[in-house]
């Protein structure tokens, strides 16, 4: 089997600049071997040779939650692209960019790619990129659950329309976004202008805060949504990978709909760490790296949760500490933002 093609998901709330960003990207030569799946042709308005339109038809599996649902439209579109690539009808395919609608939860897209019997062998989800409007971002985070879910799922967050907001407003928004998702990389943009290499470069940011932090976010404190919190943990000793996998599976089985994001770099006693990446119930295949990127070889894990007290996560880990091989500790006091 050849090298897997990368899948990049671009999402963001209505009017946050997804299409502007995509239009800018398509003008550059770096997307020559990239297929782009969009919801509406007209908004992009570019003659890209691998541009496809998709309708967001979601098939909810029996007894499942929304995050564990299959985007049947996406399955068909991606399989068609793979068939065309295999037959040589298109340029060799290296990457697929999927632009979602403003109200889309990224979780069903990830679930579709990672669980389909064909797609999982040919595609790998590279990263989720989320656009947030510098002018209206705070309002969307206060009032729209979808906006917070998108931010929680992000590997990179593009703050758009920074020319239309004050520097202080942009910095306050950036701070809030990092409170929701400490592992995300923040990039500021005007008119969708951004360096393609920076956008598609891997984000391995997990060590988001010094030592261990516990932060309660006010991201859901608007009129319509429950609380969201993030917790960043560090383990000083190597973890037993099998035991940790068992603990995480039990947690996601019991509370997966409330775990918006989990991301980590885990020391399992080998030369390099294991990269952990998940959205709600959906965990990407763990990636075993050959070496550490710096001298800090401790395990770092970030959880972004809704309606779960972070102390419950800590207590659960402590209950497993004898088989995990390491104990998570936490710095007090709890900071309420």
From TrEMBL:
Keyword terms of this UniProt record: Chaperone, Hydrolase, Nucleotide-binding
Limits of the CobW C-terminal domain: 228-321
Gene Ontology terms: cellular component: cytoplasm
GO molecular function, one term: nucleotide binding
SUPFAM superfamilies found in the cross-reference section: Hypothetical protein YjiA, C-terminal domain, P-loop containing nucleoside triphosphate hydrolases
Reactions mediated catalytically: GTP + H2O = GDP + phosphate + H(+)
Family (UniProt): Belongs to the SIMIBI class G3E GTPase family. ZNG1 subfamily.
Entry protein name: Cobalamin biosynthesis protein CobW
Annotated organism of origin: Domibacillus epiphyticus
């Amino acid at each position: 089997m050849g090298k897997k093609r990368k899948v990049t998901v671009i999402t963001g709330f209505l009017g946050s600049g997804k299409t502007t960003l995509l239009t800018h990207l398509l003008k550059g030569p770096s997307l020559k071997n990239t297929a782009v799946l969009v919801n509406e042709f007209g908004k992009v308005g570019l003659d890209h040779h691998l541009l496809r339109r998709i309708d967001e038809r979601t098939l909810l599996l029996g007894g499942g939650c929304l995050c564990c649902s299959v985007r049947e439209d996406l399955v068909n579109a991606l399989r068609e692209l793979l068939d065309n690539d295999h037959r040589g009808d298109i340029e060799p395919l290296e990457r697929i960019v999927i632009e979602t609608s403003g109200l889309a939860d990224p979780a069903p897209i990830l679930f579709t790619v990672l669980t389909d019997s064909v797609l999982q062998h040919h595609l790998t989800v590279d990263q989720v990129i989320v656009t947030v409007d510098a002018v209206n971002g705070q309002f969307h985070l206060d009032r729209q659950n979808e906006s917070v879910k998108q931010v929680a799922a992000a590997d990179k967050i593009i703050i758009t329309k920074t020319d239309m907001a004050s520097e202080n407003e942009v910095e306050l928004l950036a701070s809030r976004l990092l409170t929701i998702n400490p592992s995300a990389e923040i990039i500021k943009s005007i008119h969708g202008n951004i360096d393609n290499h920076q956008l598609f470069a891997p984000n391995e940011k997990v060590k988001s805060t010094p030592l261990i932090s516990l932060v309660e976010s006010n991201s859901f404190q608007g009129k319509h949504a429950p609380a969201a919190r993030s917790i960043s943990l560090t383990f000083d000793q190597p973890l037993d990978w099998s035991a940790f996998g068992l603990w995480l599976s039990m947690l996601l089985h019991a509370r997966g709909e409330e775990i918006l994001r989990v991301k980590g770099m885990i020391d399992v006693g080998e030369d390099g760490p294991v990269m952990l990446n998940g959205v709600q119930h959906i965990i990407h295949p763990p990636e075993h790296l050959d070496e550490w990127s710096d001298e800090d070889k401790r395990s770092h894990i970030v959880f972004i949760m809704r309606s779960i007290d972070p102390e419950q996560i800590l207590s659960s880990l402590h209950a497993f500490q004898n088989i995990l091989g390491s104990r998570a500790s936490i710095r007090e006091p709890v900071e309420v933002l």
